[in-house]
């Protein structure tokens, strides 16, 4: 059993590993060997990885796959995807190929506005606060100029600073709701730096404002931080075609398929238990590309799911309709992304991913990622309403089971051949392997 340790962060990598294996593992040498196997043999590259976060002892690898044939706004893309879940890349690729033959995906930017907030406590007359904020608006912009001038040269910066009264929710609570344009940068550091300067100006100017009483001058800033909820930084991705054009190898009755597909999406719109899993499928596609391109998938997840509940009930992110013989399927996603700064300029594989995507701007990346989410969702709902989700998923999962039981090449050939005509399940694979080994 381990004990508390002081000064862990000051230990060398070797000392950290030695402490961990001695505290938690009996087979010390085997664990150390495994940890070292995941180190990069390039010392400089490993140093780069070590410095991304704190207390690094090794690397944790995920598969880097690609999904080709994405036709987006009449331009072909091969989309990089970093994910461990079986069948996601295959499903995205299949959906991309399906829609490439039917006009491809259309993507439109609906907005690029990002948000930060200064949360503060003010005990005084609201009208005096309103007048005060109005009187120092220009000061906010002037005091942040050293931070915003380079962003302004690229067409970005602070768009607006708005006082919001939240006293009905929390006593004496107000906020400055600040909107930003950050162009190709995700902008987290930029936004937070601006907010902290605005907060300093707010407090300093309050002390000098003659209309305030002594207690009103003592504005208490609780925190200044960007929001990962960006309902005005939204991209729409969509596909559409005449219903008869949906016909294919596994869609023999396109009208029936379209109606059932629309019903399935409608269920996800009204039933939160279904909507969560429905949207998880969307995020399989979204997160895989977000990770590959060095963006923050936790921020994206949080913002997207908040957006899915923006009307008071958690609901489907995607929507489908049949009108005048046309099948249409679309999604609106809030995506605050960057193609410059952060990991985008540091991680070698992120550079590869962005190069593969033809060096997109932030808005172009928004379009690609939204399309990946829509494609993944289409593939999932199509499977659910036709063959069932498990048929394709379990065939992809077969390799994981074979790896788990260390199947030989000869065993793999026999097992794969057997399950081309039989239903895959974990127990069925194990049973077959055991019979082959007797």
In words, what does this structure look like?
- This protein is an alpha+beta fold and 438 residues long.
- It has 17 helices and 10 strands.
- It has helices spanning 13-24, 28-37, 43-50, 88-100, 126-135, 137-143, 145-153, 188-208, 214-217, 254-270, 272-292, 297-308, 348-356, 362-385, 389-404, 409-418, 426-437, and strands at 64-72, 75-82, 106-109, 114-121, 157-165, 173-181, 220-227, 234-242, 318-323, 326-334.
- Strands 3-8-10-9 form a 4-stranded antiparallel beta sheet.
- A hairpin with a 2-residue loop joins β1 (64-72) and β2.
- α10 (254-270) packs across α11, α11 (272-292) runs antiparallel to α12 (297-308) and α11 (272-292) crosses α14 (362-385).
- The two termini are 41 Å apart.
- The model has no long low-confidence stretch (mean pLDDT 94).
């Amino acid at each position: 059993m381990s004990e508390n340790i002081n000064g862990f962060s000051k230990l060398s990598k070797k000392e950290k590993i030695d402490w961990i294996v001695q505290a938690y593992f009996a087979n010390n040498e085997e664990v150390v060997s495994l940890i070292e196997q995941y180190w990069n043999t390039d010392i400089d590259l490993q140093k780069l990885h070590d410095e991304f976060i704190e207390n690094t002892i090794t690397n944790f690898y995920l598969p880097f796959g690609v999904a080709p044939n994405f036709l987006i706004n009449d331009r072909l893309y091969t989309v990089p995807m970093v994910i461990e879940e079986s069948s996601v890349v295959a499903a995205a690729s299949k959906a991309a190929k399906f829609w490439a033959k039917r006009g491809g995906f259309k993507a439109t930017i609906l907005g690029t506005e990002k948000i930060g907030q200064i949360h503060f406590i003010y005990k005084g007359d609201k009208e005096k606060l309103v007048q005060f904020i109005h009187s120092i608006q220009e000061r906010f912009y002037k005091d942040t100029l050293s931070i915003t001038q380079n962003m302004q040269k690229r067409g970005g910066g602070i768009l607006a600073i708005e006082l919001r009264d939240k006293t009905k929710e929390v006593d004496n609570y107000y906020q400055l709701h600040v909107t930003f344009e950050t162009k190709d940068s995700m902008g987290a550091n930029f936004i937070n730096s601006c907010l902290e300067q605005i907060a300093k100006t707010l407090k300093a100017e309050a002390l000098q404002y003659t209309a305030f009483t002594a207690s009103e001058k003592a504005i208490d800033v609780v925190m200044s931080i960007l929001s990962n909820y960006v309902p005005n930084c939204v991209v729409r991705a969509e596909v559409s075609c005449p219903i008869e054009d949906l016909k294919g190898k596994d869609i023999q009755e396109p009208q029936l398929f379209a109606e059932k597909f629309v019903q399935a999406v409608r269920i996800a719109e009204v039933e939160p238990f279904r909507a969560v899993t429905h949207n998880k499928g969307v995020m399989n596609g979204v997160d895989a590309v977000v990770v590959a391109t060095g963006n923050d998938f936790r921020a994206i997840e949080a913002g997207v799911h908040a957006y899915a509940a923006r009307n008071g009930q958690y609901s489907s992110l995607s929507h489908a309709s049949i009108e005048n013989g046309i099948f249409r399927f679309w999604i609106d996603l809030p995506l605050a992304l960057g193609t410059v700064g952060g990991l985008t300029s540091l991680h070698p594989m992120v550079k590869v991913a962005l190069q593969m995507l033809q060096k997109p701007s932030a808005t172009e990346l928004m379009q690609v990622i939204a399309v990946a989410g829509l494609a993944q969702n289409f593939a999932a709902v199509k499977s659910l309403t036709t063959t069932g989700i498990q048929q394709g998923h379990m065939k992809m999962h077969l390799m994981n089971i074979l790896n788990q039981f260390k199947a030989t090449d000869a065993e793999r050939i026999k097992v794969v051949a057997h399950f081309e005509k039989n239903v895959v399940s974990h127990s069925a694979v194990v049973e077959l392997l055991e019979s082959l080994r007797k």
